[in-house]
Specification:
By secondary structure, this protein is mostly helical. It has five helices and no strands. It is globular and about 40 Å long.
């Protein structure tokens, strides 16, 4: 059993979200910038709903991928509300 767990704070860290945005080579339009800020706010307030915004989903998926690879973890180490996304990420690896 893996002892490291990914915290909510690591997932909604704005610098990490912004890096994922840049790594995805998304254009910094006003709409995408608003999406990035809204994603951060929804993650902080635990009100994020997957599937509502494909850009936000891609950013979050990228963050989870980075964290899983950084700590060499599997989907069970991600907070419960993100396990579906994490499982998809693990399947792609």
């Amino acid at each position: 059993m893996q002892s490291k767990r990914i915290s909510h704070e690591e997932i909604f860290d704005f610098d990490r979200l912004e890096k994922a945005f840049e790594d995805l080579h998304l254009e910094m339009t006003e709409e995408n910038e608003i999406t990035l800020f809204n994603l951060h706010n929804h993650l902080v307030w635990h009100s994020y709903i997957p599937g509502k915004n494909p850009v936000a989903d891609a950013i979050l998926s990228s963050v989870i991928t980075e964290l899983l690879e950084e700590y060499n973890l599997d989907a069970s180490c991600v907070p419960a509300e993100f396990r579906d996304i994490a499982s998809t990420v693990v399947e792609r690896r």
